[in-house]
Design a protein that fits this description.
The protein is an alpha+beta fold and 387 residues long. The protein is built from eleven helices and ten strands. Helix 7 runs antiparallel to helix 10, helix 9 runs antiparallel to helix 10 and helix 9 runs antiparallel to helix 11. The two termini are 37 Å apart. Bound molecules: flavin-adenine dinucleotide.
Length: 387
Amino acid sequence: MDFAWSPQQEQLRAAIERVCAAFDADYWLRKDRDGGFPDDFHRALADAGWLGIAMPEAYGGAGLGIGDAALMMHTIAASGAGLSGASAVHMNIFGLHPVVVFGSDAQKARWLPPLINGRDRACFAVTEPNTGLNTLKLKTRAVRHGDHYRVSGQKVWISSAQVANKVLLLARTTAVEEAKGTEGLSLFYTDLDRSAIEVREIDKMGRKAVDSNQVFIDDLRIPVDDRIGEEGKGFDCILHGLNPERILIASEAVGLGRAALQRGALYAKERIVFERPIGQNQAIQHPLAKSWIELEAAHLMVQKAAWLYDQGRPCGAEANSAKYLAAEACYRACENAILTHGGMGYAKEYHVERYLREAWIPRLAPVSPQLILCFIAEKVLGLPKSY
Ligand SMILES: Cc1cc2nc3c(=O)[nH]c(=O)nc-3n(C[C@H](O)[C@H](O)[C@H](O)COP(=O)(O)OP(=O)(O)OC[C@H]3O[C@@H](n4cnc5c(N)ncnc54)[C@H](O)[C@@H]3O)c2cc1C
């Protein structure tokens, strides 16, 4: 067993840190205040060749595994870019995994290179307002007419739909009452045609730089060539990407938690009250130390889940556990960083209140902590399915 980073991974981390160094805390503070997609950050990572880190080499990617991709996303978040930076490229890293696994050679050649070089931007449209986590019941309807489908329905919380020109869309091709098991949904990767898709931004708590939206689809025409895999098997295609997605967001959460912890420890050393640094008090030290321990443990679970995935072994329990542990540890680290700053923790210029607002995202999405506990209870402990 070897817990050390390889020399290549050390180089990867250093290279990502160099890109991120040009985007300091004040850059992300401005983005949080004013909004607007971080185009220059996205472009810098694309130009340095990092957007295709986990994409096949045959299409211009680096062909690395989820462990390396997770290290990249951790490094971005830990640089202080937090979830604003990570979410700006998250979809590029593993979002098109269903295309890599289930797409035809022609689809891969058409779709992967422009995503890797940053020309295309994709969003991921699964969640619906009326079905929530019960994905198998989603209602957006795709009806086939010869060589194309016509699609109508509604999605919610779709991130980066303001700036994307492509959408990975899960829609129903068989009526819900006729669909068996996990069948009945189909997956498409197609142009985000704004003449048939209305995108309305949601005014949300944090991560203003990366928009999230209500999406209204009215008679969108999708060529059959834009369907990934077989009709009716879209849920199975999506399932393939779920574990890597959880691993990536967990890694981002650990990075964000570590950025908060670093700020908390620095402030604890510098702030003098009662003629001594506040960090000399155990009441200040212990919560920070506890967060270090929790983040370290969460990161080990991230690495274990990534290792299992890259070995081609089952990793559902570990990927979900990593997401759960990392999100909770991140949230507590942000909270402790604010408490350490006292009143200044509430001031935007100290950055930690922004981190706390962003820490809610890995807690809530892409799956809730409750549903992770339900999953572990059922799949690991053998208890009756509760959802
Ligand atoms: C910032 C942000 C960005 C997002 N980006 C995207 C995106 O790009 N694309 C996309 O498709 N989605 C996106 N989402 C959506 C996200 O994945 C969903 O919000 C999440 O999956 C939860 O779904 P819901 O909000 O509909 O919750 P609901 O399904 O309405 O659940 C509400 C609450 O009830 C609980 N609950 C429901 N049923 C049960 C049960 N049986 N047992 C126990 N508890 C239960 C849940 O755990 C949750 O706490 C984003 C969300 C956020 C906040």
